[in-house]
Amino acid sequence: MKITKDLYQGSLALLTDFYQLTMAYAYWKSGKAEQEAVFNLFFRKNPFQSGFTIAAGLEYVIDFCRNFNFNESDLAYLADMKNTDGTVVFESNFIEYLKEMRFTCDLEAVEEGTVIFPHTPIIKVKGPLIQCQLLETALLNIINFQTLIATKAARVVLAAKGDSVLEFGLRRAQGIDGALAASRASFIGGCSATSNVMAGKLFGIPVSGTHAHSWIMSFDSELEAFYAYADAFPEKCVFLVDTYDTVNGIKNAIEVGKALREKGKEMIGVRIDSGDLAYFSNVARQMLDEAGFPDAKVVASNDLDEHIITSLKSQEASIDVWGVGTKLVTAYDQPALGAVYKLAAIRDENGNWDPKVKVSQQSIKINIPGNHDIIRFLKNGKAVADMIYLKEDTSGKNIFTIIDPIDPTKRKKVNSDSMEQLNLLKPIFNKGKKIYDSPSIDLIKENTQKNLQYFDKTHKRLINPHIYPVGLEEKLYQLRTDLVFKMKNYEHE
Fold this sequence. Notes:
The structure is a single chain. By secondary structure, the protein is α/β, with parallel strands linked by helices. It has a domain at 159-329: Alpha-Beta Barrel (TIM Barrel), CATH 3.20.20. The protein contains 15 helices and 21 strands. It has helices at 18-29, 58-66, 72-79, 92-100, 129-160, 175-189, 197-203, 213-217, 222-232, 246-262, 277-290, 306-314, 326-329, 441-453, 474-487; strands spanning 36-42, 53-54, 106-110, 115-116, 123-128, 164-167, 193-194, 238-240, 269-272, 297-300, 321-324, 340-347, 353-355, 372-379, 382-390, 399-403, 411-415, 420-423, 425-430, 433-434, 470-473. It has a 7-stranded antiparallel beta sheet with strand order 13-12-1-5-3-19-20, covered by helices on one side. The chain has a 6-stranded parallel beta sheet with strand order 7-6-11-10-9-8. A 6-stranded mixed beta sheet has the order 17-16-21-15-14-18. Strand 6, helix 6 and strand 7 form a beta-alpha-beta unit. It is globular and about 80 Å long. Keywords: Glycosyltransferase, Ligase, Phosphoprotein, Pyridine nucleotide biosynthesis, Transferase. Pathway: Cofactor biosynthesis; NAD(+) biosynthesis; nicotinate D-ribonucleotide from nicotinate: step 1/1.
């Protein structure tokens, strides 16, 4: 199932920072509104000290762009804005301009589920300068969060080593939108299901859940509660066993499991939500096996993340399914990805691309200029390097020097004749018309797993991962260097 069309039931044009509108007005006022420009959305560091990042949020971007317009209520609000001296902020002709404006940009993006790295464009927008500018805040809001959560989920799933991971974070998420986007991104990252029923409806994600401690507490005894639940859901019995005493709870679950079996049904398993998960999971496994329930699952929850799961794995905990909530959907140890959106080139009066660079005292903050693209080189099914390049500089070449954008001493030569090449940026919109066939969320999730298989296990280590080579093609590196020196107003040899 694809995302429900028009998720937000209309335009979100005012979901922006005020300075985007003041710049838009100034572009219009100075006659630059329709000048063609290229902007790139990218990030500077992998989150969670990870060796990789998972792209997510594109379908939300498509939804946003397809519905982009200023409605009557938006325009009335903007028209009513006043300066401190009582004059209007935006003159009426600009309001009329916004009224007629529709999304007409070209947009390219890496597909959701693609493994990506710092400095490479996730989204490239080409079109009228005013439109490119007005898209910035919303695109960053969408991509920053969903990419962050998809990456966290992928790390948790890697730590689980093939076990099922369930996303249980709705009640701890940052608001309604944060919960929905987190559920979607978690599934893209590899989770098997969500507790979020609305996310299940909107996105076609499997939903999962059993009962809470309050269910047990509402009865006179735990055993009575288990029997009542088994009567209501004989096909889906996972019993929460730690309301009072975990070992006794397991005994009660086994008793009800035997009663279910007499009716031709099988208990699915037990869930432990507190205490020493390694110890009690092993106790549960032993008791279930001895009682004749070797296929019953042991589900664990309680503030889990990839590091705790790794620790429990190392302790040989008997856990089959992991319920992960707060630390996943809130990206607990890093609350923001830090993606940025920068002008890379603008058409001059002769129709040529004029590359643009932002100079900074921090080399990591110097953007990559020009109308560029990304190639991933594969050899024998494994990723070798990613190259950011100017399209016009690669035709007819087969040997490339890739230079790290932060440390130019790190270089890699690639002979493309012996390698498969993947173009990571895919056309999504052409002059405002959607030309991309959006995949189902199940296919996006499969794409994540396929992408992760391209990379060596050393790149996917949770701690101190090996750094995958990503860099600028030599001519692009030289262009950026020349522009930096030019902007700093001094020559170099």
